[in-house]
Amino acid sequence: MRTEYTGDIPLLKEGAHGLRANYGSQIYVGNGLDLTTLGTKSYGVYANGSYGSLVDIGSDSKIKTQGTSSTAAQISGTGSKLTIGDRALFDTQGNSAHGIYANGRNGTIDIGNDFILNTAGDSAHGIYAYGRDGTVDIGNGLILNTTGEKSYGVYLYGTKSSTLVYNSDVTLGQQSTIRTEGNGSHAAYMYSSDSSLTLGAKSNVTTLGDDAHGLYVSGLQSSSTTVIGDNGKIVAGDGMTINTSGSQSHGAFVNWNTGHIDFLGGANISTTGPDSYAIYANAGQITSLTDGKYIITGNILADNNGLIDLSMTDGSIFTGTSQSTGSTDGIINLAISGSASIWDMNGDSSLTGLRLADNATLKFNHADASFKTLNVTKNYTGTGGRIVMNTALGDDNSLTDKLVISGNTSGSTLVKVNNIGGNGGLTNLGIELIQVQGASDGEFVQDGRIIGGAFDYFLKRGDDTKGADVKNWYLTSVYTPTEPEPEPEPEPEPGEKPNPKPKPEPEPEPVRTTRPETASYAENLRAANTLFVTRLHDRNGHLPYIDPLTGEQQISALWMRQVGGHSRIRDTRNQFKTTSNSYVLQLGGHLIDEINDNGEWILGVMAGYANNHNSTDARLTGTSSKGRVNGYSLGVYGTWYQNKVDETGGYVDLWTLYNWFNNTVEGKGLSSEKYDSDGFTASIEGGYTFKLSDNQGVNYYVQPKAQAVWMGVKADNHRESSGVDVRGTGNDNVLTRLGIRAFFKDDSKTKDETNLQPYMEANWIHNTESFGVNMGNYQVTQDGTKNTFEAKLGLSGQINKKVSLWGDVTQQIGSRHYSDTAGMVGIKYQF
User: Fold this and answer.
1) What does the alpha-carbon distance between residue 352 and residue 323 come to, in Å, rounded to a whole number?
2) Which percentage of the chain shows pLDDT scores above 90?
3) What angle do CA 432, 438, 439 make, to 5 degrees?
4) Chain centroid to CA 281
5) How many angstroms separate the CA atoms of 307 and 329, rounded?
6) Residues 41, 15: contact at Cβ < 8 Å?
7) Cβ partners under 8 Å of residue 410, min gap 6
8) What's the confidence (pLDDT) of residue 222?
9) What secondary structure, in 3-state letters, does 303-317 show?
10) Distance between CA atoms of 535 and 541, rounded to whole angstroms?
C-alpha cells in the first residue's frame, strides 16, 4: 500500500506514531514535514514489518519527540527502508529517546546533507544501530548533540547466536560533528563483532563528561566460545578532530582484541582530563591506513597485545608520553617525518619501534624540571631525524635524559643537548646519553655546540680503552687527540741485541675542552681597563706651543688624540688565540694654568670614546667566539712642571677617569651575551729630564720616568642564557711602568720655524694581576701580560704658530706570544 502526505502533522497523543509503515507499505512525504509526538514510546517515523516497508520524506523536515523511549525515526523487521532528504532536524527529549534507532534485518536508513540531530535524556543515543546487518548512511555536514548520562552520539551494538553474528554499518559524511555532554556518553561507540562505522574527512567529535570516550570499540573477547566474524572497526577520515575533557575519557580507545580504529590520514586528538589517553589500545589495533598529519595532545598506551601504529607526516605534533611495556605485550610503532613535525615527550616513555625522518624532532621536554628516559624495545631508525635532550652538564654522574634502545640502530640522527643548570666538569667515560643493546650501526651526530659552564662537550661513541661501551654514545668534556700511526720498528742487524722496550710513559693529565667565550670575557675586561690609559706625553705631545701673541711657550689649552691598536694574546691553559683591534678618541683642555716660583701647575678635564673588537679561536676544538666593547670615559688631570721653559727638571702628572662600557660576547652557534662594566682608573706618573748638551743648535735630552696605574673597571656579574654565572677576575690590577725617554731638538729654531723633535722610549711594564674570568667556578686567565717590554718611536713638533702635531708607534711584547701594537696621532690648535 502506498500513502502520500504533504504539509504538517499535528501533535499526536501519547504512545502514538507520527508515520508508520507496516508489512511492505510505503509512505511518501514531500518537503517541509513538521512532525511532533508527545508521550512514552511515541515514535516520529516508524518503518516495520518483514516485507520491505518504506518511508520516504523530502527535504527540510522537522521531527520532534517528547517522552521516555520515544524515538524520532526507527526501522525494524526485514528490509525496511527510511529515506529523508537534506536539512532534516530531529529533536528528542526523554530518557532512552533516540534520534535514530536501526533495528531491522538488512534495513537501511539514508539521510541527506546538513542533518541536525539533538537528544536530551539519559541513555538517549543520537544514532543507535542494533545489529541485524542493517545500514545507516548520513550525508555531509551532520551536527549531532546528546545531553545526558550514557547517551552516545553513535552506538553500534552487534548481536550473535551460537552460529551467527549480526552487525551494522554506519557511514557519516564529511565534516560531521558529534558532541556529547554527560558521564559515560561516548561520541562513537561500537560494541559488536563485524560492524563498521565510517566517519568522513574533517569530522569532529567532542565529549564533555567523565568516562566519555571519543571513538570507542569494545566487544566480545575471544574465549573458548567460537566467535564468528570478529572484525569490528571504526574508520576515521583524514583530518578527524577528537576532543575529550573528562576523567578517564580517552580519545581513540579499543578494548577488544579484534577491534580496529583506522585513520585514513591524519587526526587532531586532544585529551585534558586525568587518567585519560589520547590513544589507548587495550588489545586490538589503532593504526593509520595512510600517512597523515597528526596533532596529538595527551598520552598514548598499548597493552594486552594492543597495537598502535601511526605514520605521521610533516606538521605532526605529539605532546605526551608513549607507554608500551613488555609485561603487557603492547606494541607502539611511530614513524615521524618532516621538519615541522615534533614529538614533545613530557614524561618517561616506551615504545616498540621509532623512526625519525626528514628533520622530524624528538624533544625531551624539561618543563617540569625532571629528566626523562625513552625506551625503544625493538629498533630505532634515523633518516635525517633530530633529537633534543637535556643534561645537567658535569662529570660522568650528571643527571641527564636518556635514550635506551634494546634493538638495533640504523641511519643518521642529529642530537642537540641543552644544559640544565650544570656548571661543567671533568668527564672520564663520559655522560651516557644513548644506550644501544643491539647492533649499533646508526650514527648520532652532534647538532650545534654543547656547553656546560666553561666547557665544550662533544657527543662521541664510547671509548673502549677507557672502559666505555663502543655501542653507546656519551658526552665528554675531555680533549682526545688523534693518535698518529705508529712507525714500524726497524729490524735488528744480525748479531745485534734488540733494545729492551722503554718504560711506558705515564698517562698525561686529561685536558678539558674549555669554551672560547672565556677568553672573550677576559679580553673585554682587559680592554675596558686599558683603553683609556694615558701618559703625559700622550695628551700633550712633547713640545709646548709658542703663544702667537706673547711669543712665550705655553702648554696647549685644547688637545685631541686618536689611537688604533692591535693585540695578540693567549691564555694560561694554552687553548686559545685571541686577537683584538681597538680605537680610542680622547680630547681635553686646561681649566687652570698657573706659574709660580715652584713651577707650573695645570688642571684640566678630558673625555673619550673607545671600542674594542676581539675574536678568539679554540685550538683544540675548532670553535670560536667574538667580543665587543664600546664605552666612554670622563675625568680630570693635573700636572706640575719644575722647569717648563727649557724642558728640564722634574714633572709629576696625575689623572683619574670614570669609565663605562657596553660589552658583548657571542660564541659561535650561541646567542649573544650582553652585560655592562664600569669603574675608575687612576694614574700617577713622574720623571726627570736631563739635558745632555748645551749647544746653540741641536741638543739631546734623556728622561727617566715611572708610572703606576690603578685599574678598577669591573664587569657586572652575569648569568648566561645557558645558566652559568660569569665573574671577571684580575680586579684592582696595578700597572707599573719604568723606562727612559730620549729626544733631541734644535734650539736655534725661531718661533716662526717648524721645529720637529724625534723621540724614543723603552719601558718595562709589570701588572700585578692578569685579567681573566671565572665561569662556573672554573677560571681562565690571560697569559704573557705580567711582564712586558715596550718600545716607542715618535715625532712631535710645532708646524706653525697655531698647529702642533705629534704621533708615535708603540710595540709591546711579552711571553707566550703576547704582543700589542698601537699607533697614535695627536693635534693641538690655537684659536
Assistant:
1) 9
2) 74
3) 100
4) 32
5) 9
6) yes
7) 379, 380, 381, 382, 441, 442
8) 43
9) ECCCEEEEEECCCCE
10) 10
Span 766-790, pLDDT tens digits: 999 999 999 988 999 999 999 999 9
Are 803 and 827 in contact by the 8 Å Cβ rule? The answer is: yes
pLDDT at 798: 76
CA angle 215, 219, 224 (to 5 degrees): 155
Q: What letter would DSSP give residue 555?
A: -
Average pLDDT for the chain:
90
pLDDT band at 746 (very low <50, low <70, confident <90, very high): confident
Examine the pLDDT at 224 and tell me if it is beyond 50: no
pTM of the model: 0.85
Nearest one of 796, 692, 806 to 740, comparing CA atoms: 692
Would you report the helix, strand and coil content of the chain in percent, each value rounded to 5?
5, 55, 40
Task: Using the structure block, give the residue that is written with the C-alpha cell 743648535.
Answer: 697
The segment(s) of the chain belonging to CATH 2.40.128.130 are 517-829
Q: Confirm if 40 and 67 have CB atoms less than 8 A apart.
A: yes
The confidence score (pLDDT) of residue 159 equals 67
How do residues 495-507 score in pLDDT, each as one tens digit? 555 555 556 555 6
Residues β-bridged to residue 488: none
Region 121-140: mean pLDDT is: 92
Instruction: Give pLDDT, residue 543.
Output: 47
Q: pLDDT category, 227, cuts 50, 70, 90?
A: very low
- Chain centre distance of CA 583: 37
Whether residue 630 is predicted with pLDDT greater than 60 in this model: the reply is: yes
Q: What is the pLDDT of residue 694?
A: 80
* DSSP helix/strand/coil, 471: coil
Please report the beta strands in 576-697, taking only residues with DSSP state E, as ranges in sequence order. Answer: 576-596, 599-618, 624-643, 648-667, 672-691
* Pairwise CA distance, residues 684 & 248, whole Å: 80
At 479, the pLDDT band (50, 70, 90 cuts) reads: confident
Q: Residue 595 has which C-alpha cell?
A: 706659574
Q: Which residues are registered as beta bridge partners of 657? A: 635, 681
CB neighbour class for 224 (10 Å; exposed up to 12, middle 13-18, buried from 19):
exposed
SS3 526: helix
Q: Determine the Cα–Cα distance for residues 545 and 304; give it in Å rounded to an integer.
A: 100
For residue 58, what are the contacts with CB-CB under 8 A and spacing of at least 6?
29, 30, 31, 32, 33, 85
- pLDDT at site 228: 36
Element housing 403 (H / E): strand 402-405
The grid coordinates of residue 738 equal 719604568
Contact in structure between 195 and 156 (CB atoms under 8 Å): yes
Q: CA 80, 85, 91 angle in degrees (round to 5)?
A: 85
Q: Note whether 399 and 423 are within 8 A (CB).
A: no
pLDDT of residue 749 exceeding 70: no
Fold designation for 517-829: Lipocalin (2.40.128)
Tell me the three state secondary structure of residue 538.
Answer: helix
- Reported as type and span, the H/E element at residue 390 is strand 380-391
Distance between CA atoms of residues 444 and 449, nearest Å: 14
CA 61 to CA 220: how far, in whole Å? 38
C-alpha cell at 407: 634493538
Is residue 424 within 8 Å of 417, Cβ to Cβ? no
DSSP output for 5-51:
E-S-EEEE-TT--SEEE-TT-EEEE-TT-EEEEESTT--SEEE-SSS
Q: How many helices (H) and strands (E) does the chain have?
A: 2, 71
Q: Measured at the alpha carbon of residue 824, what is the angle toward residues 821 and 829, in degrees to the nearest 5?
A: 175
Pairing of strands 349-351, 322-323: unpaired
Locate 802 and state its grid cell.
697655531
* Close Cβ partners of 235 (under 8 Å, ≥ 6 residues apart): 196, 197, 198, 199, 261, 262, 264, 289
Whether 522 and 773 have beta carbons less than 8 Å apart is answered as yes
